[in-house]
Design goal:
Blueprint (H helix, E strand, L loop, with lengths): L23 E2 L5 E2 L14 H4 L10 H10 L9 H21 L9 H14 L14 H19 L3 H17 L10 H16 L4 H65 L6 H27 L1 H42 L47 E4 L18 E7 L4 E6 L2 E6 L3 E5 L4
Antiparallel strand pairs: 1-2, 3-4, 3-7, 4-5, 5-6
Helix pairs in contact: 2-3, 3-8, 4-5, 4-9, 5-8, 7-8, 8-9, 8-10
Length: about 450
């Protein structure tokens, strides 16, 4: 046990890979058992996945690593799985040695470092990718392309529901191989369709109806122009960025992660030169150099082709310019049409409203052979709408407004005098008002002259 830091330091021992290496305990009591033999070959985890070393700053760090190194066999005959195990453990211990013990790893040359900086400054956006600390600035690069694509889609379709529908329709179109149009109706076209529908219903005699038809047609054209903008931006801007994000940048990330793994393996074997053959060390160096060259070449190719990204930005600007130019042209023509409609409507002679004479009913009381009451109409007579009926016949006064809901009911307003003709039951009267006959509820009226029994 090391006295300088509360870490259980494994004692050097000679063991085969079939034996488990004792787990390492940190100061907070967490057991790290990743040094046990893995069941199958796997990629080395990142430092944050393996263990947190934020509290480990002990002078005995080298002793920790050296003790664990002794637990790794010098030779074995388990085939490819055993070789992968050794590479994994070696890379992991090299990472621990660099992080905890301050061991210096192989430095990349200045040209490579500058090219990596230029690449990060060029792209400036993707999704977060867990790369080694040497290339964490790739994370900043990762977010840019993805954020630009997202914000461009929001610019084209501000409505979240429309964006969701657009995404679903695009997915269905790709599955069916029918990606010819946007697959959804623009809001301009929906508004235009509504205007044209009601404009036609109003007819050509209505200035408002004619103006609605004109504006509706213009809105339909604006919807078609918006469709063209969406398709142009998608094909010449969003799709190329998507391709850059999913292919070129991911390929570079793959090469960089592979380079980091081989660097750790090389540094680990270089540190154990007395226990590793010269051929193994030479092979590790060659693999490291190969990965470095491939990563460097991929970044160089991306930097040399940055004119493509500039061309894609130019395509975005050109599509917007065409959209706004065509929209301005359509709206200018529409404005002229509406001005003409206003002049035509203003030039028409105004018609004067001539109210028709009101018709009133004049009832005279007479008894027929059945004892009923007959009303005689006097067509030429005029009287106020709510003139009281003669009090010598059955009638009632409305206490509230009644709006008929069913056929056969009689509507009236508060204060109307209604002539009673029959009592249907305890809840309904039958009566007449302004020449109309129908049923109405008894509790809505106050009986002035009751019906004869």
């Amino acid at each position: 046990m090391c006295l300088h830091h509360p870490i259980a330091c494994p004692e050097p021992q000679s063991a085969s890979l079939s034996q488990e290496i004792p787990p390492v305990k940190t100061s907070v009591g967490r057991t790290v058992d990743h040094l046990q033999q893995p069941a199958a070959p796997r990629s080395p985890p990142s430092p944050t996945e393996a263990v947190s070393f934020s509290r480990l700053e002990s002078p005995c760090s080298d002793h920790v690593c050296s003790g664990a190194e002794e637990a790794i066999p010098q030779s074995h005959s388990d085939g490819e799985d055993s070789e992968a195990d050794v590479l994994f453990l070696g890379s992991l211990l090299q990472k621990v040695s660099e992080k905890v013990g301050g061991a210096e790893g192989t430095k990349l040359d200045d040209d490579f470092t500058e090219m990596e900086k230029a690449r990060l400054n060029l792209i400036a956006a993707l999704t977060s990718a867990l790369l080694s600390p040497h290339f964490q600035r790739v994370d900043t690069t990762s977010r840019a392309v993805l954020d630009i694509m997202t914000k461009t889609t929001e610019y084209l379709q501000p409505n979240p529901a429309t964006r969701a529908k657009m995404s679903m329709m695009n997915s269905m179109s790709r599955m069916r191989g029918q990606e010819k149009g946007p697959g959804y109706t623009q809001t301009e076209a929906i508004l235009g369709e509504s205007m044209q529908k009601f404009g036609r219903e109003l007819g050509e005699e209505s200035s408002f109806g004619l103006a609605l038809v004109d504006i509706g047609e213009a809105m339909r054209e604006l919807g078609e122009v918006k469709d063209a903008l969406d398709m142009e931006v998608k094909q010449n801007f969003i799709d190329p960025l998507q391709n850059l994000h999913e292919k070129d940048l991911k390929e570079i990330q793959h090469h960089l992660k592979k380079l980091e793994g081989r660097r750790l393996d090389f540094d680990y074997k270089k540190k154990r030169q007395g226990k590793v053959t010269e051929d193994e060390l030479k092979q590790a160096l060659e693999k490291f150099d190969d990965s470095k060259e491939i990563a460097e070449q991929s970044m160089f190719n991306l930097l040399e082709c940055d004119i493509e990204q500039v061309s894609q930005l130019a395509a975005l600007v050109q599509a917007q310019l065409e959209y706004h130019s065509r929209s301005a042209e359509i709206l200018t023509q529409l404005s002229s049409k509406i001005d003409e409609r206003i002049r035509e409507a203003s030039g028409k002679p105004r018609k004067e409203f001539a109210p028709k004479p009101r018709t009133s009913l004049d009832f005279s009381i007479s008894e027929n052979h059945n004892g009923g009451i007959h009303g005689a109409r006097s067509p030429g007579a005029r009287s106020p709408a709510r003139s009281p009926a003669p009090m010598d016949q059955p009638c009632c006064r409305a206490l509230y407004d009644f709006d008929p809901e069913n056929e056969g009911e009689l509507g009236f307003k508060e204060g109307d005098i209604i002539t009673l003709t029959n009592k249907i039951d305890d809840n309904w009267f039958e009566g007449m008002l302004h020449g109309n006959s129908g049923f109405f509820p008894i509790n809505y009226v106050d009986t002035l002259v009751p019906l004869p029994h």
